[in-house]
């Protein structure tokens, strides 16, 4: 069924999809891309009638099986998602179906930035993984209706820029989308002063970047990621990455370059390069990002048990002696680190497991602890939860990176896994309460909260947190020079991240 809404500030009648509890307006353009590698431009005029019944195109990218990491059975058919480098600046708006009164409401707004190693779209609304319908429907049932917005933006080499124009085009696309929310969300019944920005993995990296650059949002949710996971890199690193792709283009055809090749040729060059992750380029606004807490009033931080899962296949193929050398690269800390993480080359399994544990602790756990302390020092409200519910399709995979998307957004029927279904419902309730400016769980300022395992839902005492996370090891890492630890991290993780784990 369709539903229409005349939007005053857009001066356009939008037609979306209506279900029993929500209305989706899909693929709304929030900007235009005049040419490849150009900054996005604000749309000044919209057509009188705008069809919002189909999801908009995503950025061209190397195809990846989203179901692989999430353990979604291979007989599940994901819908085809169109791609267009010039029309990927679009977003979806999901409203609770509360009738005509919604236009005069001032509902809190969730803005979602998807992840995917800054390379691909991992978990779009179109795929069903990050469809906002269930969390919006749950908000209506709880008597706390929210509006949700999910953003598409440029990725991989299309987001790098050409070295002559602006860099970090993904960030610039997202900034324009956030401005669009400020300008137009009230026409949907949303409150532009009650915006919560959220993202997972690479999406959380972007959210952290917007946080430290004082994006106009009231709250931020960082799930399984931060700038500490993938920090801004110097210009020469971006040039080297761009040249890698250009070289692969020339191998395909000597006449090709990044400016003139077709989008499909550029994607093929990215595929041939083997690059599975990208990064932000340093700009002056990143100065002192490690200590900034931004202008947002409150933060919600979450991580899962096995964040290092996306490095697993690569690390498992690494020779134990090379793993030991990576730890030795930290200099004076090498011997202590090897002891702490059980790095013994004559014990390959212990060695490789320890490498994954180090990546998990240094790139995920330690940043969460750092961000929590920084926010508390700045007198900001910060809440932290541990997502420990195992994958519903393959519980032996544990609570791995990105499984929280399946739980939180409820895009799949999990009735076969009651504990996962229970945890997902509880997560949505907590997120909705946070979006409303409330404490997400009882005594949340004093206690961490555990979602799972085995369907358990509880505030955690200190000893329980320490039994679920290597808190003591992370504290030891915090006492070591990050420049030394970065060398070990690079030696262990560079080129090994993959969504096919």
UniProtKB/TrEMBL annotation:
GO terms for molecular function: hydrolase activity. It comes from the Eukaryota. Its EC number is 3.1.1.-. Residues 19-255 form the Carboxylesterase type B domain. InterPro entries: AB_hydrolase_fold, CarbesteraseB, Carboxylesterase_B_AS. The keyword S-adenosyl-L-methionine does not apply. Keywords: Hydrolase. Belongs to the type-B carboxylesterase/lipase family. PANTHER family: CARBOXYLIC ESTER HYDROLASE. This is Carboxylic ester hydrolase.
